[in-house]
Amino acid sequence: MAEKQIPYFCNVSIEQVDDGKVYLNNGERLPYSFLLVLPPYKGKECILSSKDFEHENGILPVHETLQSVQWENIYVVGDANNIKGTKTGRAAELQGELAVENIVKQMHHEPLRSFQHETLYFMELGKEGAMFIMNKPSKQGTLTCTTSGIMPHMMKRAFESYYLLKFS
Ligand SMILES: Cc1cc2nc3c(=O)[nH]c(=O)nc-3n(C[C@H](O)[C@H](O)[C@H](O)COP(=O)(O)OP(=O)(O)OC[C@H]3O[C@@H](n4cnc5c(N)ncnc54)[C@H](O)[C@@H]3O)c2cc1C
Q: Is the pLDDT of residue 120 over 80?
């Protein structure tokens, strides 16, 4: 950010926006000519409007087994649950598989498995190539790997071509 002369403000929130100014809760006023604001994360309307759900801003609390804290026969996967970690399509997919596995285990009165975070990202970094981040839990520990530069960018391009080829 500093390299690109981009000022940033941590641990503040927006109090008000008017025509040409953003008001932060630390008293700062920022002039703007173009503004992009991402709203705080919240759950779906069907959860917010359901009286019987205990939720945090529409996000449902779950155990590590993905069972709802409120009802053990209900599993919550993906963005809708409050499991710690990044909300990604990959996490939603892995959680979907685990929920199915645990439902079957629960029906057979077998011990349930906890969700383990696995992260694999390729993130474009503008002119500086891309970043590759991997956190993969295994029996030996968590394999962590982070690298940036042109190589991850090439890997992302290769993955994109492979992915599109699979659909053609
Ligand atoms: C801009 C953006 C970029 C992203 N980029 C990436 C990325 O590069 N890689 C990645 O892994 N993740 C990415 N994500 C995150 C990823 O999209 C989500 O984490 C993932 O889609 C969550 O899946 P989900 O099935 O939990 O929820 P969703 O994909 O949100 O699915 C919920 C579904 O429920 C439906 N629904 C809502 N209300 C009802 C109702 N009352 N009845 C029936 N259906 C209903 C919705 O229409 C929707 O189809 C990105 C997200 C955003 C917003």
A: no
